[in-house]
Amino acid sequence: MHLDHYRVPPDERVRLSDWATDDDGGLSKEEGEALLPGLQERLADLQERLYAEGQQALLIVLQARDAGGKDGTVKKVIGALNPNGVQVSNFKVPTEEERAHDFLWRIHRQAPRFGMVGVFNRSQYEDVLVTRVHHLIDDRTAQHRLKHICAFESLLTDSGTRIVKFYLHISPQEQKERLEARLEDPSKHWKFNPGDLEERAHWDAYTAAYEDALTTSTALAPWYVIPADRKWFRNLLVSQILVETLEEMNPQYPTPAFNAADIKIE
Question: What is the count of structural domains for the chain?
């Protein structure tokens, strides 16, 4: 697959309509699912090297509309990794303590330490999405926050943390079907929030807010628009991007402080 097709170029305006939500990369479901285990094996190997090296970190940002597949991506893609080397953080409505600080305070506290893969299931971008759509901040404040986010991400990358950001791109029809499926299955009722229907009514406003947020794509903290109507293709594409990102980071096992050939275990 040509990954550059899904990568948002730096410093360019974005139209989400330029990406199809049901793209399959020219693969059948069977072909895609057959490719995934090999990518997961390679991903696990690279993560072990990252953990052993302890000199770099990888931060994965997941953003999507309701029912867009953030949890599914964590389960199907991040689930292939050793949990000892993974830190998943969820950012919901700020607490009273969090509201008493700048909007990035709670985010920076969860940045992964060296050797770790950090996953933000929702992220710093919530503060320029929900707040903007519901007129809790104005456009000027949103633009200031986007600049602060870029500076924050630059700080992390300068300090040894690689960032890769995924927008899981689903259609209104696919979201409708997923929400209905949650209502039809009693075991999924806990995942359904009636408030999601109110957010769905703001579809166009969220589109505009996401298009602004995606302009923060940079060479070292890129955004990828992931067609997410087909879950199998979403998992395949995210896995391949993560593999290529970690290969570019090139983590190495540390040199031991002993000569293994000289050690005999009786």
Answer: 1
Within a domain: residue 177? Answer: yes
The answer to the question of residue 205 being in a domain is yes
Q: In what order do the strands lie in the sheet with 223-227?
A: 86-90, 117-121, 57-64, 161-169, 223-227
Largest CA distance in the chain: 71
Domain of 58: which CATH number?
3.40.50.300
Tell me the per-residue pLDDT of 105-160, one tens digit each, with 9 for 90 and over. 999 999 999 999 999 999 999 999 999 999 999 999 999 999 999 999 999 999 99
Is-contact 107 123, C-beta < 8 A? Answer: yes
- What SS3 class is residue 169? strand
Q: How far is CA 196 from CA 62, 111, 146, 221, 250, in A?
A: 18, 28, 25, 29, 41
Q: Are 204 and 42 in contact (CB under 8 A)?
A: no
Residue 54 lies in a domain: yes
